[in-house]
Write a structure and sequence with these properties.
The structure holds 2 protein chains of 2 kinds.
Chain A lengths: L1 H7 L7 H6 L3 H17 L6 H25 L1 H4 L17 H22 L2 H22 L6 H21 L4 H32 L4 H4 L2 H24 L5 H22 L14 H26 L1
Chain B lengths: L1 H7 L4 H6 L2 E2 L2 E2 L4 H39 L5
Antiparallel strand pairs in B: 1-2
The chains are: A mainly alpha, B mainly alpha.
């Protein structure tokens, strides 16, 4: 009887906000910021309106890739507390509709960027959507514990797209910014996964702490933070940015490396499980968010002065 | 009154196609549910309208700027 009543409960349809939630608005804010910095530091001129449309297209493309990701990952999203309230696992929107939505928005964003900026920028945007939706989400995420290393590339594209929208070609500086985000992603994400590993284990996603253990993950966090240091200051060393960026990058990367050393040296049991409730990992994760924001802001300020 | 008539008569094929359904057949709507359904649908329609209007405005804006600044679209 209860079942029949439940089955007869009318489906009220999704709220407009649910369709927006599919685009992962919080991720988009970072994408918009790095894309805008890429556009701002590029040599040359772009009409402000076309620049604004280009940034919108970068955001829309990232959102579209996020929607395709939600469509594909609906099964594991339903298993993790952090993601159960997403529109598909919550039963607010049908999965097949989300796939169409993601594909249409992808096409629209690439087409609009091609019109507003140039074909090179549109091609890089298309590549970034393909990279995130297919290479990361469908291919690597569930297959290898190195998923996040390769997936980091997806988040690194916006700065390159912003630059390309102005110049029409890919330069050395945006490639270095790409490398910074690429090498920043593993210590950022693995710091988080150290204290959220149970959720990934439950969902069967082979995150590094799940597959190789916490001790191995701590070492990797430190290694990538140390690799990030020379890469982050390389734009300054190569004369592509000024002192403001250089000193900021040096200080921020050094602090990040010290925090990651804290993650590595955290009091732990034989299996590498933290005895301090992963306090150093939480600190490193929070700082990593600030790190990227400050580094890119310094890059933009450097261009201003 | 018309809505009541619609519920009392045997629904035509056309009606069934238009109405939201559950797994086992037509939903039995309370007034609150119907009002909530309408509110949500209106919200989605406004979002779609805003998206289409924004898209058109952007195409128009791009065309204006490009033709004005560069004399050509491509």
């Amino acid at each position: 009887m209860t079942t029949d009543t439940a089955r007869f409960t009318p489906h009220l349809g999704a709220e407009a906000g649910d369709w927006i939630a599919l685009l992962k608005p919080r991720v988009i804010s970072l994408v918009v910021f790095t894309g805008a910095v890429g556009l701002f530091i590029a040599p040359g001129h772009i009409n402000p309106m076309l620049g604004a449309i280009a940034i919108f297209c970068i955001a829309l493309g990232a959102g579209a890739a996020g929607a395709i990701n939600m469509w594909y990952d609906a099964d594991i999203d339903a298993l993790m507390r952090r993601t159960t309230s997403r529109p598909i696992p919550a039963g607010k929107i049908e999965a097949s509709g989300v796939l169409g939505y993601g594909i249409v928005l992808s096409i629209v964003s690439v087409m609009l960027l091609g019109m507003a900026a140039n074909l090179c920028a549109a091609a890089v945007l298309a590549l970034s959507i393909f990279y995130y939706a297919v290479i990361y989400t469908m291919w690597l995420k569930r297959r290898t514990p190195q998923n996040i290393v390769i997936g980091g590339g997806a988040g690194a594209f916006p700065a390159v797209i912003g630059w390309t929208a102005v110049t029409g070609h890919i330069g050395l500086l945006p490639m270095l910014l790409f490398a910074i985000v690429f090498f920043w992603t593993p210590p950022h994400f693995w710091s988080l996964s150290l204290y959220a590993a149970t959720a990934y284990e439950k969902a069967g996603v082979p995150m590094l702490p799940v597959v190789k253990g916490a001790r191995h993950t701590r070492l990797n966090v430190l290694v990538y933070a140390l690799l990030l240091l020379p890469i982050s200051i390389s734009p300054w060393l190569l004369g592509l940015t000024g002192r403001i960026y250089g000193i900021t990058a040096l200080v921020m990367s050094a602090v990040f490396a010290v925090l990651c050393w804290g993650v590595f040296a955290d009091a732990q049991d034989a299996a590498g499980v933290s005895l301090t409730k992963d306090r150093p990992a939480r600190r490193a994760f929070k700082f990593s968010l600030l790190y990227l924001f400050v580094l890119f802001a310094a890059c933009a300020v450097d261009r201003l002065v | 009154m018309m809505a009541q008539d619609h519920l009392e008569r045997v629904p035509s094929r056309d009606d069934i196609d238009r109405m939201p359904r559950t797994e086992l057949g037509e939903a039995k709507w309370t007034d609150e549910q119907r009002a909530e359904f309408m509110r949500r649908r209106r919200g989605r329609n406004w979002l779609l309208l805003a998206a289409l209007a924004g898209f058109s405005m952007m195409i128009y804006g791009i065309a204006l700027v490009k033709l004005h600044e560069y004399g050509q679209m491509w």
